[in-house]
Amino acid sequence: MADDRQVIDAPSKKIIAPGYTFGTVTDQIASVVLTRKTPYVVMGTFAVAMGLLLIFLLAVGLLLTKGVGVWGLRGPTMWAWDITNFVWWVGIGHAGTLISAILLLLNQQWRNSINRFAEAMTIFAVACAGMFPILHLGRPWLMYWLFPYPNTMGIEPNFRSPLVWDVFAVSTYATVSVLFWYVGLMPDLATLRDRSEHRALKVTYGFLAMGWRGSAKHWAVYETASLLLAGLATPLVLSVHTVVSLDFTVGIVPGWHSTFFPPYFVAGAIYSGFAMVLALAIPLRSVYGLKGLITERHLDNAAKVMMATGLIVGYSYIMEAFSAWYSGNVYEQAAMWNRMTGPYKYQYWVLVACNVIAPNALWFKKVRSNTVVLFIWSLIVLVGMWLERFVIIVASLAQDNLPSSWRVFESTRWDWATYLGTIGLFLFLFLLFIRLLPMISIFEVRTLLPQAKIKEDSRG
Amino acid sequence: MSDPQTNTDLAAVRSALWAQLEGARGRDYWRSLEDLAATPEFQDLLEREFPRQAVGWSEDENPVEGRRNFLKLMGASLALAGMTACTRQPTEHIMPYVRQPEDLIPGRPLFFATAVTLNGVANGVLVESHEGRPTKIEGNPEHPATLGACDPYSQAAVLQLYDPDRSQALAYNGEIRSWGAFTGALRDALAQQRVKNGAGIRILTETLTSPSMADQLRTIQKSYPGLKWHQWDPAGPHSARAAAMQAFGQPVNTYYDFTNANVVVSLDADFLASGPASLRYARQFARRHRVDAGTDTMNRLYVVEPMPTPTGTKADHRLPLRAGDIEEFAWALGISLGIAQGPKTGENNDIYKWLGPIARDLETNKGASIVIPGEQQPPIVHALAALMNEKLGNTGKTVFHTDPIEANPVDQLASLQDLVKDLDSGAVEVLIVIGGNPAFTAPVEMGMRDRLKKAKLRIRLGMYADETSQVCQWQVPETHFLETWGDARAFDGTVTIQQPLIQPLYGGRSALQLLQSLTEQPEKTPYDIVKGYWHDQHTGVDFEAWWRRAVHDGVVPGTALPTKSLAVRGEALSARAGAKHLGGKLEVIFRPDPTIYDGRFANSGWLQELPKPITKLTWDNAAFLSPATAHRLGVQKGDLLKLTYQGRSLNAPVFIQPGHVNGAATLHLGYGRTHAGRAGTGTGFNPYGLRTANALWQDIGMDAVKTSGKYEFADTQNFHLLETPDRRHIIHRADLADFQKNPASPHEGAETPPKELSLYPEWKYEGHAWGMAIDLNSCTGCGACVIACQAENNIAVVGKDQVRRGRAMHWVRVDSYYQGDENDPAIYNQPVPCMHCEDAPCELVCPVQATVHSSEGLNDMVYNRCVGTRYCSNNCPYKVRRFNFFLFSDFETPSLKLQRNPDVSVRSRGVMEKCTYCVQRINSAKIDAEKQDRPVRDGEIQTACQATCPSEAIVFGDINDKNSRVSKLKANERNYSLLADLNTRPRTTYLATLRNPNSEIGA
Question: Quick check: ipTM above 0.90?
Fold first, then answer.
């Protein structure tokens, strides 16, 4: 198979490079898993990811033995990196769901070649995000108390608390995302089952494919299921980050207590999510020679979405400052002023540079078509969005109503270790995914081919 | 298995085995046991004695029963494992009283009266005892010095009792010895001294007021006429003693009565928060400071001082002056009052700026004013003050003189210098150091640490093996005052008999016992000594009844010294010193530390961690500088300064204190201990290293140069200058005149939303509704409430590093705010406990309902349920919630476990905690009331902070009872809620503070 493989690694403005056949698409994607040697770059990245993961395990081990005090948390900043990381990771997850669900419903075909790894990204990001609400607890082993399970104590969680809503929102999101991803994987798992030569692989992929044979009935059921799941996932794109934002807006902390957080957070989530998609797609397509499948058109579209949401985020910053001023509320005004001029002014202005000024470069096609610049830009956006959450959480808490309690937060090495550790965990999972599962949806990309279209037309 | 046959067999085998052992003794016996263990019979016995229930599959057992047993056991073990896996369940032994002690009902505390002494002077206290463990110290309402209040030092005494670092064994040069060895050595030494009339014996004590110990010392001096008794207290009232000799020609004790004082001028006297009668003064002062109705009058306080003190924060006019300028201020005020003549000699014009108005104010309040000199001011200031009070007709009305309360009011510095001379001449053969820590606290040029070694036999009685113990051969562990009998006089001479509440934890001897070894009856117990002394003093009929009464009440009736009318002598005023020029250098000011005093409390975690009044510094001292002086020296907070005074130098970190006088640095004594214990060793720097006999308290001529390095302070609050006007309306304040014109004036601009402004229906509180009112006009910011709360509620000590990270655990804090010019600001104190908001933001956001509202309006914290999301703390606008980031509570040290209040849970890692309004006290009072079928009386429940507050600033009670004190205060026009505009509807409210400025002095 490797001999007659026709690799099409030509840059293209279309959503799929010309010259592909059903066979070459399948070959190219399946070979990454089944036949090609893992490139050294990927191996190196994997080693780094493993190293970070070990640091993560060390940090978590220490945290569990000694207490959350190993982080820099302190009165009044009882939340800092923990919740910043949580919101950041959940936000990153959003792009995957947006691509797989909303763009599917909107019949945006360019999504077909990026939805698989974007969904995987979602799941791994949510896994990383989910660590923090548990780890940040004073007594993490009691985290199940946040679930309304029947118990002899006769106590329920407090349904008025946004943290309980979070539990539902994030766990629902994780469940639906995993289901959607897995259902979408089934036809491709069957392809891998059929193509793999080793018995163990055949059995494994066959088991995972759940008896997929590609019959018309299978396809009909599949289409219905995936549409239904897309319908389920679509509101989640909006609801999860809305609920996350309610963690803040429900609190009466100046700088948190405002009604426009939900749309602002959702836009921010998609913004950072697309940044992560770009940050993953750009190296992937060049390392694995997938420029024909993940074309410049994809990057361009993703960049456009990123810019659009970035502008919404920028608008939100302006509105945030305006409404603080317009409210006439002394605490809100002071919170905004402290954010801009206080101990966190550097973080604030850097995030403004990253999230308000930087995305405007994407107006230019030259920027959007330069993959290196685009990659750097997506990293800038990721940094900016992390800082945004940090500033909202920490700067607001550090200087709230009573000046007597004000205190500047200082991170510890274990804050860093935990955060970098989750990046390690994310990369670890993602690279395993690339190695073991088709990173691009084979059958969906095949529907993009002209051949597929003709059939459809002729049938109709 | 329960087969009778098997049992018989077992019995048979056992008796056979015993038969084998029969006759074997000693080593043989053990040999036999070993041999026996190897025999097959024994192995068999072992197997049958301990049937293998858990592994019941062996062939010889019924397989079905075996498996069932196995499953049963497994089930039980799993269940047990599940139960114990999550939380630590310490082993606890429950032991009933074999014979129930009289009056003791398990679970109900008993209170015993005793006294805490500082510099020998007594503060009468009541000690709470739970089943024989002293756990908490409260003021004794019947004692004149405390009137029911309590200072931080007394509160912390209970922690000192259980301090695991206390000296626990009699040691000779660091090696543990028997008491017999010690008494033998002492007896031999005394036998040698006997022939010399004791000429080689020196006893060095702290200031003594104890009548029985004084009597004991007199007896000893009779047997050893050559014996010399020296006294040294580094922070004692040396100047006042010298001034008494100067002004009256005899030792005199002076105290004040603020009840009728309309005008008070403090010459660097922190009379509201330090000194032997400060609790009483604070109460009297606060009563005259309180304004309940618009027509009430208020006293007026002028304070001149270098470093802001709690008293300074209450001043209507505070003038920052260098400590050395206060003498000139006193002269100038005296001149204005006509007691002396002379020109201005000071180079600082500030000294004179308010003199006219102050003098006129004093003169219009003749007989109702006080000029009070600071204990650290030189004798001339005391003499001038005495003369001014006499001239103003205050003596006998607001100022009282009595005979001295000390047993022997000597000039302690001279006494110590005398000892140094004798040490140098080799005349000291037996030196007995009782208490104190002279090796650490003596003036630096005496080099006491090395000099003490010149005595041949050095015996040290001390609670800690401290710096002095290091240079003494014998370290005799001293009993804590809660472990032994004693007596002491209060500021007015009133005697309290100290009674023990617990057997000495670590053995040890009391000072009375050790001194008793020098007498003819060395075995007499402290109880017999004290009781015997008072028996001899007693003149009435029934001594036993009198004694029981005196011990029970904590006050010996009729022992207050009678006041004397004394005239100030003509030669009282020594020549006026010429102006002292700073000459570009700094004035150095030594003061006892507000929390660890002269260093004696250095190992008290509570006192170390108590934020010092105003500065909010913990675990450290600093070179306190004014902002302008710091600017001049080019230093910032935490920079290191090399301080050089009289050729000695010291590195000290800078702490910039607004309100501090320019051109001076205040250094608090007591830090820099090298042998204090695990809490106190190595904290701060040691200003004793600069302190000479010539300048015990202040002098000019210190050089300060910035050196490299940065020091991390652990202060609990950053400096915050309130905006003018304060748009957050944190401190409501007004001038008395404005308040009388318009009672709403303190609240100008503040907004309180109407009660209807809520989506939720109003909750009706039936029964009790607990609330608290804190009068900011009374609060001095002394911090006694913080320690009282810590003792009552088992609050953990977290250490400097954690305080620096903002993780101090105090449930009530005292905030300090500044207003006006940074170099001369007005300072306001605000104690902040939990507000117990009716619409509590914390309750809404807790995901597991670990913080909930009670039907009586308490915001309850359920530790067991808390998982530690900390969301409640984030959402608390008052930031009163404290989180256990680590396992802060000490679950290991056995002695500290004894200290805990059994009515309050000790919090574990990962849970939130906060002020509960002392819910344990509320419930205890409710149960009592229910048992007696009556309502809870107003004032019956006193929260720990309220009970201890010397100025009665905190009032707690039922706001549903319209006649309760708290209801009346809440109805007062000065009442306001902190951050009222957030509509949290706090149950803790504040009463605005008022100032009563002299209209002649412009703001």
Answer: yes
